[in-house]
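Quick one, T. Sequence first:
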Amino acid sequence: AVVSTQSTGEEEMMPDEGSLKKIELVKDLANYYFMPLHTRDLRGVPPAYVTVATADPLMDDGVWWVRYMEHFGLEAKLSVVQQCHGFMGHYSRNGAAREELMRIKEFIQQH
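Structure tokens:
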């Protein structure tokens, strides 16, 4: 953003609020809590239960994350469900989602 300074009247480049938010986002990308697929150090990562739907553009990311965790000797469970992206949000009308929630609950209770 171009900002005119009052003291000199000259224009100089200064980040606007939107640019500052983008800078903060880039910092977040390095945080594995925000973007776990980008981390190289998996120390302290808890066991994971990853549900992916067969018709989901993010399926590959979920499968990759489980394999990545396993590569480092961490516990990860992959559950592939014959559904579409977002199916878990419809658990009140979707038996597959309710069943998956029960499996997640059991996993959490075991850990």
